[in-house]
Amino acid sequence: MRSSIHIVDVDRIETWSRHRNGLCDTCMANCCTMPVEVKLPDLVRLGLVDPFEAEHEEARQISKRLIKAGIAERYHHKSEIYTLARRADGDCRFLDASTRRCTVYEQRPATCRKHPQVGPRPGFCPYGPRQERR
C-alpha cells in the first residue's frame, strides 16, 4: 500500500496549499517550524520583555539582551522586527514537543494570530493534512 504522506519544501512557496477552513484540524502545528517574527508588543505580551524595559530601553539594547539569552536569533532595526530563536529541532520555542500545541496560545504573537493571512504567501499554508515537514 502506498503512503499518502508526502514531504513539502517550505522554501518553495509555489508548492503551498491554499488555506481553507478545517485545514488546521489535522495539522501537527507544522507552521510552528517557520521563523517567528515579532514586534516589541509581542515580546511584552509573552513576558520576554518587561513593560518598563520596553518603554525606557532602546530597541538595540533589548535585542542584544534577547540574542545573548538565546531568545531571539536576530533583530532588524529598520522594520523593528525580532526573529525568535527556535529549538535545535527547528520547532518554535513555545511549541510543546509531545502534544504539538502552543504553550502560550493566549499570549501568542500577532504573526501567529494572523497566520495564514500574513506571511510569505498570504492565504496559503506550506503544509496540509497528511503532510510532514522536511
From TrEMBL:
<dbReference type="Pfam" id="PF03692">
    <property type="entry name" value="CxxCxxCC"/>
</dbReference>
<protein>
    <submittedName>
        <fullName>YkgJ family cysteine cluster protein</fullName>
    </submittedName>
</protein>
<dbReference type="InterPro" id="IPR005358">
    <property type="entry name" value="Puta_zinc/iron-chelating_dom"/>
</dbReference>
